[in-house]
Specification:
Helices cover 69% and strands 9% of the residues. The chain is mainly alpha-helical.
């Protein structure tokens, strides 16, 4: 072998050695990143496991079933006497005055939705009936489109409000009074 060949081989070996050192350093950096990610994952896993354990403890705790009653009592304790008396009156009267009850319900609905939505969907409604034996409440809508919209978008809201006022779990039915269904409306006369 000649000196030049030896020098070339030595240079190639040195370059290879430098590349291997770089690769080793790069691999070590990658392993460090992976280790850090595993540390984060492990911390998150431990945190989630701890939180799950807490949730299981809460769910299995007898206090979980006491809390809603306690919260209800606290809320009722903060309610003015007029509202509590009204709530009792609603239960006792068994919906003797449907219009007054509907106005109370509408006032609460109006607080929970936007004014345009209230004006559009609730202004032309009325409480038609309450059937205590079947626990149903019938609400009249001005037309079948409004009935369907109210049923699809607001039945849970109304059920919650009526249930809170009466203390009963009621089924809300939206109906169209036969003489008020605007599906059968007359078109205005054509202007020439």
């Amino acid at each position: 072998m000649t000196n030049e060949t030896e020098k070339t081989i030595i240079e190639m070996l040195q370059e290879l050695k430098a590349e291997m050192a770089e690769m080793k350093q790069d691999m070590n950096q990658r392993f460090e990143k992976v280790d850090k990610r595993f540390d984060k994952v492990e911390k998150n896993f431990n945190f989630l496991a701890e939180e799950l354990g807490k949730q299981k403890t809460v769910i299995n705790s007898p206090k979980m079933f006491e809390e809603p009653a306690k919260q209800k009592a606290e809320v009722e304790g903060q309610m003015p006497d007029e509202i509590l008396n009204l709530k009792s009156a609603v239960k006792i009267s068994s919906f003797e005055n449907l219009e007054e009850l509907w106005n109370i319900i509408l006032a609460q609905v109006e607080q929970k939705i936007s004014k345009p939505s209230f004006e559009t969907w609730f202004k032309s409604t009325k409480l038609l009936s309450y059937n205590g034996s079947s626990s149903t409440v019938a609400i009249a809508a001005p037309n079948s489109f409004a009935r369907d919209w109210l049923e699809n978008h607001y039945s849970h809201l109304i059920t919650g409000i009526v249930g809170a006022l009466t203390g009963e779990d009621l089924l809300i039915e939206f109906v169209v009074q036969k003489n008020h269904d605007s599906d059968d409306f007359d078109l205005p006369a054509r202007i020439n």
